[in-house]
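Q: Given only this backbone (311 positions), what sequence would you predict?
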């Protein structure tokens, strides 16, 4: 919904009255153009969730837009399940862990059981956890491969997949009827951490499902970079256990929401491979692999006729 000038100013004033002190300070520094950009419309919640620039306002990713999205998703889940439960994961971006906590608290206030990962986790692990824990749905705080100033909110249904259009439309309707400043009281007894054993179970399941496919390619020399994202341990562990010689790009293994070594943490962008290529030349690697911050996007380069070529 696009707001006119008067509606923009009214919403801006409402946020000045109801936001946290930290956000109020940010709002007071806004120029007229900042106000229009941040309050001219609401951050769109689409079929895959929502994604936007971090900051104050209805058109930005912040704790209040996350609250509203969670209220809508929680109401949809609660109508479909008598004992609803949700798994929550997050990537390495700025405020991802905080937004995951907000999501957990809001859902618990609605009587929804929450399984919360306490460390950055790949999207495929979230999908796996939804099914293993027999949850009603899932949420991942991530903006995928976008630049550092972005974050986002993805929702998943009980089969571990992103909501199909019909379900997405129902969720969107619930979100649009929710308010940024609705009060809630968390029920900490409904929030529990996902055990580390689930990640190990995921890795073992992947290995069992690919062993027969990899028999002709034992002992490859692989260079891997998680591009400062959540794939570091799971990908390295899986490939190593399968018998491959894996060397990581050490400068890109530490989680860092600034993604300081790349222009964009997108493994489809060949520029993201620049450091990996240097390591690969030294290691005489057969294969280069890069994953994005939430580890659901993959880039691969192989050696062909003496040079590395992207697949």
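A: Predicted residues:
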């Amino acid at each position: 919904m696009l707001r006119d000038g008067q509606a923009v100013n009214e919403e801006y004033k409402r946020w000045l009255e109801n936001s946290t002190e930290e956000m109020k300070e940010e709002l007071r520094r806004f120029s007229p153009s900042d106000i229009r950009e941040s309050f001219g419309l609401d951050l769109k919640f689409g079929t895959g969730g929502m994604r936007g620039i971090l900051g104050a306002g209805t058109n930005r990713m912040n704790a209040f837009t996350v609250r509203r999205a969670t209220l809508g998703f929680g109401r949809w889940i609660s109508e479909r399940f008598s004992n609803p439960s949700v798994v929550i994961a997050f990537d390495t971006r700025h405020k991802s862990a905080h937004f995951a906590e907000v999501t957990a608290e809001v859902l618990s206030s609605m009587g929804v059981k929450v399984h919360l990962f306490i460390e950055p986790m790949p999207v495929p692990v979230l999908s796996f956890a939804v099914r293993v824990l027999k949850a009603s749905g899932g949420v991942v705080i991530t903006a995928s491969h976008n630049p550092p100033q972005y974050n986002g909110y993805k929702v998943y249904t009980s089969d571990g997949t992103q909501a199909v259009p019909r379900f997405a439309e129902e969720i969107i309707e619930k979100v649009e009827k929710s308010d940024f400043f609705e009060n809630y009281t968390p029920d900490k007894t409904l929030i529990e951490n996902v055990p580390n054993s689930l990640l190990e179970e995921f890795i073992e399941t992947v290995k069992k499902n690919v062993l027969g496919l990899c028999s002709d390619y034992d002992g490859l020399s692989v260079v891997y970079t998680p591009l400062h994202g959540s794939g570091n341990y799971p990908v390295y562990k899986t490939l190593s256990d399968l018998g491959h010689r894996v060397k990581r790009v050490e400068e890109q293994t530490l989680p860092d929401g600034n993604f300081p070594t790349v222009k964009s943490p997108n493994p489809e962008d060949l520029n993201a491979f620049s450091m990996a290529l240097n390591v690969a030349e030294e290691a005489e690697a057969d294969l280069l692999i890069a994953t994005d911050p939430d580890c659901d996007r993959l880039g691969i380069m192989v050696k062909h006729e003496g040079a590395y070529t992207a697949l």
